[in-house]
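[INFO] parsing input record for Mannan endo-1,4-beta-mannosidase
[DEBUG] input buffer:
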Amino acid sequence: MKRVTIFAAILIIAALATPWSLSSCKKDTASKTATVPDLAIVRSWLADRNATAETAALFYNLQKIAKKNILFGHQADTEQGYGWIDASGTSDVKTLTGAYPAVYGSDFLFIASFQRSAWFETQAKITREQAIAAYKRGGVNTFCWHYWNPVSSVAATSSQEGSNGDFYWDKSPVQAVAKILPGGTHHEVYKASLKHVADFAKTLISDGKAVPVIFRPFHEFDGDWFWWGKAHCTPEEYKALYRFTVQYLRDSLHVNNFLYAFSPDCNFTTETQYLERYPGNDYVDLVGMDNYHDLRVGGDVMLATAKLKIIADYAQKNNKLAALTETGLELAANAGTNDWYTNTLAKALQQQPLALAYVLLWGNRKDAYFTPYPGHAAAADFIQFKNNPYLLFGDKVPDLYTIK
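[DEBUG] output buffer:
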């Protein structure tokens, strides 16, 4: 997320408004026939042809759901919230609405970092426990990665490259993308970071099965605030980085429980612009967009919908998933705007037929939050939003992990 302290997560997404079915407006992109495809066919659609059965089923079922509904997601929903942190099972969304979200956002920030202290191990443990719990509830896990600049200078008290880095360019203004590609001076450093991602992914086990994850590396790359942004690498360098990331995790480290998401910010108005840094269909399962700007107070809801349609149309043509991968209104900074969920977000999601798998709002903390708490002036609007039949929270999610 742009310009947000990532220690807390803050963003929530869902859609309400006049409910209407999209089923009559969508072709069946999950299958070329009316019959349920077998596992081998679904795997053939994915970036990872050896994906676990549950991961392939997640892809298939999200495509089905997107024809008439959308899942609601929230970043760090059970890890931190308004006035609490690391409270196992606590959820601001559930406290207010009685239901967990359907999609849970997490971050590899403290997992694939350059610090190995007990505190970081504790954060990894919390994230692991909450991701497994989300899966057991029938929810979907998606992970972004605010990756510390691996080429930043070594701190005086540290012996590890990257330990003095940051994911924001202005805090670590060091060119890195070209240097971590194969043949680059810091390629082995990057491979070691991917090993941390893989090792963690392999600990996400429930009843002997790997928990599927939608992995969203190097997001918002069309901005310049992250070190992997468009001002700091060429389109070809970015594509090469994304491709290597998928290939190394999939083929060398044998991570088979990932779906891969491509998600720029909202700096495009045409499909050509959207695809400028697209690594190719062989490396992507989900196309998305992070969009706070168009959905801000005084923003352009019609423009937000038009961009979502570009994404959804591309997904339909190319047998991908589509999603609004981040959005939200920070309520503390926008006091007095108490109908954003029904009057802005829901309109953006529903004023045109869009086959989107999910929408995710950023997370909550005491001083900045994207979903309201009980008694907040926007609480009634959020509950109305939750009750929109187009939206699916955790209490209405069907089985996502079986192809049937």
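[INFO] Residues 3-33 have pLDDT under 50 and may be disordered.
[INFO] shutting down worker
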